[in-house]
Amino acid sequence: MKHLLPALLLFPCVAVAQRPAPTPPENLVQYAHPLVGTAKMGHTYPGATVPFGAVQLSPDTDTLSYEQNGKYNPEIYSYCAGYQYKDPTIVGFSHTHFSGTGHSDLGDFLVMPTTGPLQLNPGTADKPQSGYRSAYSHATEVAEPAYYKVRLADHNILAELTATTRVGIHQYTFPQADESHLILDLMAGIYNYPGKNTWTFVRVENDSLVTGYRQTNGWGRTRTVYFALSFSKPFKQYGSRNYDQKQPYRGFWGRFDQAHNWPDLAGHQLRLHFDFGPTTSGQQIKLKLALSPVSTAGARANLRAEAPGWNFADYKRQGQAQWQQELSKITIRSPRRVDKENFYTAMYHAFTGTTIYQDVDGQYRGLDQNNHTAKDFTNYTTFSLWDTYRALHPLYNLVQPRRNADMVQSMLAHFDQSAEHMLPVWSHYANENWCMIGYHSVPVVCEAIVLGNAPFDQNKALDACATTARQRWYDGLGLYIDKGYVPEDKNGASVSKTLEYAFDDYCIAQAAKKLGRPDLEQEFRQRATNWQNVYDARIGFMRPRLADGSFRPKFDVLTTSDPAYIEGNAWNYSLYVPHDPAALIAKMGGSPRFVPHLDSLFTMNLPDKFFAETEDITRDGIIGNYVHGNEPAHHAAYLYNWTDQPWKTQPRIRMILNKMYHQGPDGLGGNDDCGQMSAWYIFSALGFYPVAPSSGEYALGSPAVHGAVLQVGQGKTFTVSVKNQSDKNVYVQSARLNGKLLTRPFLPVSEVLQGGTLEFVMGGRAAK
Amino acid sequence: MKHLLPALLLFPCVAVAQRPAPTPPENLVQYAHPLVGTAKMGHTYPGATVPFGAVQLSPDTDTLSYEQNGKYNPEIYSYCAGYQYKDPTIVGFSHTHFSGTGHSDLGDFLVMPTTGPLQLNPGTADKPQSGYRSAYSHATEVAEPAYYKVRLADHNILAELTATTRVGIHQYTFPQADESHLILDLMAGIYNYPGKNTWTFVRVENDSLVTGYRQTNGWGRTRTVYFALSFSKPFKQYGSRNYDQKQPYRGFWGRFDQAHNWPDLAGHQLRLHFDFGPTTSGQQIKLKLALSPVSTAGARANLRAEAPGWNFADYKRQGQAQWQQELSKITIRSPRRVDKENFYTAMYHAFTGTTIYQDVDGQYRGLDQNNHTAKDFTNYTTFSLWDTYRALHPLYNLVQPRRNADMVQSMLAHFDQSAEHMLPVWSHYANENWCMIGYHSVPVVCEAIVLGNAPFDQNKALDACATTARQRWYDGLGLYIDKGYVPEDKNGASVSKTLEYAFDDYCIAQAAKKLGRPDLEQEFRQRATNWQNVYDARIGFMRPRLADGSFRPKFDVLTTSDPAYIEGNAWNYSLYVPHDPAALIAKMGGSPRFVPHLDSLFTMNLPDKFFAETEDITRDGIIGNYVHGNEPAHHAAYLYNWTDQPWKTQPRIRMILNKMYHQGPDGLGGNDDCGQMSAWYIFSALGFYPVAPSSGEYALGSPAVHGAVLQVGQGKTFTVSVKNQSDKNVYVQSARLNGKLLTRPFLPVSEVLQGGTLEFVMGGRAAK
């Protein structure tokens, strides 16, 4: 430092002296709270992950089985992310978790540090001392982006977790203890059941490195995850127990003591322990567990590349720096800390929904179970597309364009590998789960084409969309193509399918138009009108129709258990024509009849009986009959924009933002669904929303922020400024895009992507 | 042809005209009979394979389970190779088979063509019509190297099989039939039981290509084989049945008819059928099924590389040409066809015992379950080393030196990948089975070093041997190192282990000597004397010794169920000091006492009760108390060479050759053990035998051939000529190596490998 002083004196920094020092960027990481959504039905996890990280290292609080007495166990539903805030014990820390899903899997490689006599069973929540699990108190718990900390009361161990993209990093601070152990439980898992492990394999490579894999037949039917686990301190000894009831063929193995220090294990039901002997107070044992979708060799390479050292604080700092960078894709102004907390918690969840799925060298396991190398893109997985096509992928297109293009390429690779020649429906870890309905990769692929964020063979991509949309065997699609609707007597969820197919078809038409393929455009433009075929004009609702053309007589617009609909009742689904609200409104009698109809959605009192019908809806996620906790009506509040009273959207949006999102573990009104709920928040708080991805337009709402700057790619920024903002001033008085007054309540997405400014002026009364 | 005539006239071929045209090489393939050993306990398979082929495409005649009522089913033992000659039905044709083993696995990808209504169950042997299996008659059966043919009576289908190294090729000639099917049974397997499949995976890529894999927890604990199956004719439709009792998580899959034309299947218990509609008489459907140890992509590449076309006759011709080439490594003269049949059947079995285990691009699955690429060598598997170190690998060193060096490199790669840091014991398909005792890779590696057939880092290889031999945890080895013997009260099979460890240690000493590493040589030269520590001089037998140094009181030299010995009784094992017979004989009282002792081995009458004690020994494989059906005494008849009556070896050898090997399905007196029994035949018929591999010497016997030419590598030949040969002239009168009279009954292997001549003169009486 001393040597610098003369230099500074010799070259006084005049330019700096003449203007004020730049404000250091605001620490946005402080606002994102991973614990939000960990109670009730948010289904998020509180543990450590980096943006889009392949590792989600997080505590699991129970070990329920997916089946009890041979039947689905409904209790398991609360444990989609492995953690429930109400639970009094932590079983251990596992390395993979979905964020906000309504079905689950994962929970791979559960690790637990313990003191005292070795216990290989997890024990039970009411008697944690009966096993390796531990009681804990939320008072000792800290959850930040890329950092999680908790004190394990029963063992008096301070557990800290952080992560890189592919490596989970553990730091355990031990008390003085006679014995210390690390448990590696390969039987553990989320949505587990005793037959779920098709195989597990472990090698103790030396006294501080363990490799292996877990192969499961779960929600992902054929899923394998490989690991390499490095210890900061050599273990003194180790052992395992194989709980397999049957191990035939192993006659000659009987010569060996495989329970102790045997380095080569495999079976369906393995638990391992690594023993470190006595510890002194404050002694730390650190672990680095790298994942790979390809091989243990890949996991070791990932470990070397991403986590060569042992400085936990550095990894935490790097992880939080990554979060700072990604959260900075949108900086907002707001006088209230809680608004920033809600916003950046939503950003945090939006950027954990999909995950990187390849080794550092680009290798990943494909749908065909072969290893592939991603060339010119990064391969992603966890595509909960029925949810995320709506707002999450549009958000990515806006502030994560490179990643969204990579995700589209990942979907196209999936198509190339698909035996069914389909784009993904709900895919994770080289599996198609066929969960939910529609072919909602199509809007994602097509929006990327329409917006020009498509660095790949666009015609081939469009062909993949068309091929997907023409698979006659798929879920009523042949009937839909022939009849223009899915007949309910032939195929369930027929109304939902017809409506969603029609929207997806619209997206193909839009992309075909962009690429100048009129035949394709015409075919799918026509198909996009099929929503009309399930509209019963006599009653003004989308109604199940039978193969003979008649509408099904039995019909209740409010019930959530009508098999013609999925995750939504007829009332909500009847609003689902996102690509042509004007036509829908016209059919429904135009603004005079539609506006009060839509008003009633938010104001009616849904009878209690409907809440008992389905596990997925509680009062928390509902406003009147508007179900924000599920997705089909996510666009509904924006529909006023197509009526003669567009301002009515604005207070609705502000109300939903206020009611459905808040801080605290129960801060989400329903499953976050891999970030779709959060993406809704982000768009709506900014003042606009992608009602129909691929349309090229956002619909205006009412901004909740006081201002925002969006990084829209290639160094461009898009600034939202809001004048006269307040909780009462929810009505937009005027909006100017790049200085030009908007005369319609819509924004062209292309102009937003070019950077520029959007200026809202707010007021307390509707600007009719 | 017409155009050639003037050219021939213009350039008359004077040289050819002056000497007789060369004799075309004799067709040796005609003499090799794959059916030999398929009855009783030979455990060979009759199907189609090329030399060292990765595919062994062969009929399986029953579907017994490895377990019945939760216990090992002893009946299964007959089905090590899937086929028993006595059986009246064929279940189907599967692609992998061990040759001659005494434990089993494999039987992957069973295919069966059928006519008539679809049957997905195999049915039973007594009611073949109850399933897809078929009765057959041996009268319709032809088994040749690389070719198998049989008529499936129930379906009136002529089945023909051939193979390339990695592709099984099927040709099915159908009758006129209303329906024709091909069954692909992924539940089937050898040594199968319902839980054996850890996973199977199938993709119907298009109407004539299917890929997938089978992963099993069998004898190989973690074994995966991938396939690509191509049909000569597109199937009209296909279907499957998943017999898994439980398939949770598959809720959304219920929308799809996965039983019919569903291209993407996985589970534990799958059977598929491919339907071709009506057939006309004589219509052929051909299949090519390629294997890979790595991936379905690898299997497809193997298919393209090795079997691009559909000409079955060409593949058969190529396969038999390969056999002709490999069988020609030794050409023999003999006036009797049956002698050639015995000899070339032995050659055939010797060259099917170990198998190539890598894709055409060199990739293979390693012991660590990672994919590796064999650089500068070809990777092999199926190492039944307790058997094959004795004569099979020495035979390979002699006439397959390149392959033997590749096998040694495969073993060294195994060592590098071994979590236990051990050379293979009994390994197949990336698994260590730990079957039998000893560390008998060591003699194979060390003999290669001693003989200079070692194109690899020889010191590293020797270190691997020493590391293996110093693993204190291994099977009594720590005790052996400390005490000089394995104490029977601490570790079973203690006498067998002590004797075999001592021999293996000798081999390390020999290699250390060759490489000039005196410390290592001294250490293991000392260990090689440990056989003395279990020799009880009071009774003249190798006897179980306890940790306190005393000999175990209870002792019966004849019983085959003494736990201190394995696959041999004390009488036979007491002769097992192959590396120092002279010292053994001296201990046993010298020639005067040893010669009659050894005589009695062949002449005594073993009480019947011993045959009931173990499944592995029948009267067929025994002469007196000499058990040729198991390996420990394979060198015994040669021990006379170290006495003052060496000629006594000669009639014994001729007797064993005559008694233990003949034509017909029951032509082998015991398990062929991956070619060890056959290698014994080959050496002994040539007139010499490797009593102690790594010693650098063969012991002389009595040639059964009338002459032989051996291709000993690098274009060199070693010629055995035999004068006055006859069934009665079993005594060697003289033997000259390269013209020089042998004064000891031993041959230096190094001189044989340099090429040259060995001239026997035979006579009817011992040349004392």
From TrEMBL, chains A, B:
Keyword annotations from UniProtKB, A to Z: Calcium, Hydrolase, Signal
Secretion signal span: 1-17
GO biological process: carbohydrate metabolic process; glycoprotein catabolic process
Pfam families linked: Glyco_hydro_92, Glyco_hydro_92N
Gene3D superfamilies: 2.70.98.10, alpha-1,2-mannosidase, alpha-1,2-mannosidases domains, GH92 mannosidase domain
InterPro entries with a match to the protein in the record: 6-hairpin_glycosidase_sf, GH-type_carb-bd, GH92_a_mannosidase_put, GH92_N, Glyco_hydro_92, PNGase
Gene Ontology terms, MF aspect: carbohydrate binding; peptide-N4-(N-acetyl-beta-glucosaminyl)asparagine amidase activity
Superkingdom of the source species: Bacteria
Residue ranges annotated for the Glycosyl hydrolase family 92 N-terminal domain, each copy included: 32-292
Keyword Glycoprotein in annotation: no
Cofactor(s) needed: Ca(2+)
GO CC terms in record: cytosol
Subunit structure: Monomer.
PANTHER family: PEPTIDE N-GLYCANASE PNGASE -RELATED, SECRETED PROTEIN
Protein name: Glycoside hydrolase family 92 protein
